[in-house]
Amino acid sequence: MNYLNEDIDSLNEKLAQGTLSADKLAQDTVENIKKTDEKLNAWITVQEDAKPDEDLDFANNKLAGIPIAIKDNIITKDVKTTAASHILDNYIPVYDATVIDRLKKAHVTFVGKTNMDEFAMGSSTEHSYFGATHNPWDFDKVPGGSSGGSAAAVAAGQVVAALGSDTGGSIRQPSAFNGIFGIKPTYGRVSRWGLIAFASSLDEIGVMSKRAKTSAQVLNVIAGSDDHDSTLSTRAVPDFTEYIGKDVRGLRVAVVKEYMDAVDGEMHEVIQNQIDVLKDAGAIINEVSLPLTKYVVPDYYIIASSEASSNLQRFDGIRYGYRAEDAKNLLDVYVKSRSEGFGEEVQRRILLGSFALSAGSYDRFFRQASKVRTLICNNFDKIFADNDVIVGPTTTTPAFNIGSEISDPIKMYNNDILTISANLAGIPAASVPAGLVDGMPVGLQVMAKRFDEGSIFQVADFIERNNKFYEKTPAGMED
Ligand code: GLN
Questions:
Q1: Domains in the chain and their CATH numbers?
Q2: Of 26, 227, 243, 253, whose CA is between 20 and 30 Å from 13?
Q3: 124, 146, 309, 455: which one is catalytic?
Q4: Is the C-beta atom of 150 inside 6 A of ligand 1?
């Protein structure tokens, strides 16, 4: 069994009627992953003994017994959690992340951990100690990153939903490249307790699925205040599924000039068509400008790398995971373990970040970058004073070939030019499938005010009902 044509509602119906048992669902899921993952490599760990909880109440709990994938930088008690790094390749956590704890209380079935760029640093899932993940639409293409394993697993029908993390675009860019929906909630909406930290002022956990409603159902469960995470808002969490099935009449939709200028040809056409669909349905379209877009990539890489250099100090060969052999003294333990344990991209970020924070550079780099960040936030506030949502392309191109950007870090970094701003401003943002360009999916990005994920679900669901992209099967998955 695969889930190419399923969602949480359709599976729940079968479970509630008794035409499918949760045990069989779990077994089938694992078998299908094992069968299809040879070509995809979307998983780092498959829980072959995956077992649903007992006495599930399918009538009152839609998530009961539903297999869900978890990105491998989210801590799972007793299940190996590697962040796709050699330095953690044997790490078995002794506690659960808050999001896992909440999904456990909702009785989902855990089937394993998905592949990613090491420590979530990358845009292609090629920076994984466990090898690259392949795009189910074309195995020669990247699935995007860093949540490429989660995206490929959903697109390939291995699961109906997956958790990912997004620091600069890692949920939205792979969602766009795989033709699925993926949402990064507002900063402060979902607890990061138990998310292996990359850049703490930007990191967010979010959800990926074929249908927007599926993500709304999962977000309902994982969102909301948590004593373990002091950056979390205590405000009430709405029922996000209430935004599904609405129309968009009167909704004020801002289209970012710089984002539209960043795409051309067929890609521009596909995105424009989706905007026209909103307009035809009565949405009010306003052109707006985010003039600082040209600075967001350097701005983000200074801030994210600085925070990463600090967060990753804890991996010292003493407390967690890999320790190098033949160290002559304590310093040697640190240096050797970190040199052998971290991959090249992670080391590059640590160097960049340590430099940006160093005495002579702090004012010139980190402080300046923080000021630019504030200007970007102000820019969004101004737009949202007159608009409900912002739309535009999620990426500048469809998925690229495996191997084509890996040796050019700047090119790889530029992949995030359209997604990074939402992280810098802490606003919620999602990617919803817009159409195909040369046989590969592209995404429409939808952003909203802080804590207004609801409007994003409303627009995404509307777009999705209109273009019915979810009915398409990735080329590599057709038998
Ligand atoms: N691609 C970006 C980076 O490499 C964003 C990654 C992410 O969102 N985790 O930093």
A1: 8-252+385-477 (3.90.1300.10)
A2: 243
A3: 146
A4: no
Distance 170 CA to ligand 1 centre (A): 5
Question: C-alpha angle 95/98/99, rounded to 5°?
Answer: 120
- Cβ contacts of residue 106 below 8 Å, gap of 6+? 61, 63, 64, 221
Q: Please confirm, yes or no, whether 147 is among the known catalytic residues.
A: no
Query: Closest Cα to atom 10, ligand 1: which residue?
Result: 121
| Gap between the Cα atoms of 240 and 222, Å rounded | 12
Question: Is residue 71 annotated as part of the catalytic site, yes or no?
Answer: yes
84 lines ligand 1 (CB under 6 A): no
CA distance 445 to 417: 12
**Is the sign of the CA dihedral 170, 171, 172, 173 positive or negative?**
positive
Side chain identity, residue 74: I
Q: Tens digits of per-residue pLDDT, 285-310? A: 999 999 999 999 999 999 999 999 99
pLDDT tens for residues 138-154? 999 999 999 999 999 99
Give the contacts of 76 (CB within 8 A, at least 6 positions apart): 70, 93, 96, 97, 100, 110, 113
| Residue 118 scores a pLDDT above 80 | yes
Asked about 170 being catalytic, the answer comes back as yes
Q: Give me Rg for the CA atoms of the chain.
A: 21
User: Taking residues 85-97, what's their average pLDDT?
Assistant: 97
Q: Which atom of ligand 1 is nearest to the CA of 123?
A: 1
C-beta separation of 330 from 393 below 8 A? no
- Angstrom distance (rounded) from CA 359 to CA 363: 8
Helix, strand, coil tally for the chain in percent (to 5): 40, 15, 40
Structure-derived torsion over alpha carbons of residues 156, 161, 165, 170, reported in degrees to the nearest 10: 30
What is the total residue count of the chain?
A: 479
- Mutation choice for ligand 1 from 72, 85, 114, 123, CB with most ligand atoms inside 8 A: 123
How are beta strands 67-71 and 161-166 bridged, if at all? parallel
Place of tokens 């017994």: 65
Measure Cα distances from 116 to 120, 122, 173, 416 in Å: 6, 8, 13, 16
**Peptide bond before 146: cis, by omega within 30 degrees of 0?**
yes
